[in-house]
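Revision sheet: structure tokens.
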Amino acid sequence: MQIPPLLDALLRAHGPTGHEQLAYDVVREAVGDLAEVESDTVGSLIARRRGTGEGLHLALYAHLDVVGLAVAHIGEDGLLSVHTLGVWRANVAYGQRVEIATARGRVTGVIARRTKDAEKVEWDQLYLDIGTRDADEARSLVAPGDPIVVVAPPVELANGRVASRSLDDRAGLYVALEALKRLAADGVGLDLSIVAAAHEELGASGAGPATHALEPDLALVLDVTYASDVPSGDPNESGRHVLGGGPAIFRGPAVNPHVFELLVRAAEAEGIPYSVETGMRTHSDADDTYLSREGVATGLVSLPLRHMHSPIETVELADLDNCIRLVVAFARLLEPGLNLAR
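Predicted:
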């Protein structure tokens, strides 16, 4: 199965946490004239399509930021120290090629290690080599704070699966954008917004301000969850979620029970495979959206993902398509005056 062009473009876009604007152009182009698009001061990009004025306002959330690094210091030898943007493991970064977004354009480099021992790899052992001979040459190319992402473009695997950087959560954003296109083509009358949220990898700090400004009636967060069909997977933690098994619908304190029930009804009516994920917290933007203002009825749908926060994050494209179908079917069930009180 071929990687959809929009998904491919989203995965190739830069934009780690705090530098989401580097991916704005891909989102703006995908939205086109379907909605009004603006950014907020935190860094979220928000697209809003006005409905008939009689329906509910549904906001779809998928975080735009991805894990990455930033230049921390330029040494006299021309080698760079880095700090993380988001939480990921040093052993994953060691030996990777990277791309630095600078004021002068893109600079490539490699992540190396200061020690040769076989002990656990720690971030303070790593440095970035961009090939420069000294500090002056390095400073002519990069500056402290310049954002960095691993070079890991999408590759097609067997069974319609894709491995790439940034599937967390550019895959969710792809689902939201495709759902917008289908709902717009259907002429659905509700107000529909997409929040390409900033700073989720820092603790979901971008979704809250966007929700406060939008005041939606419902929030549906689209993210990824740990696939359990790997050696380290444990379905006892939050349920069984496998590649090809369809989206995972979350059930827990942050999720409005009526929204959960509507999602399940939509999935079963359309014959969409799904699993149920559970937990005390969602560890997603949903933990912020449902508490905005006087409260927002919130749901969470996640894509099973292997190898989270690595250059080889892996999904099955059929799950993305089923997630799009689920979002569209769910939106069609939202009648004016729907009672969402618990």
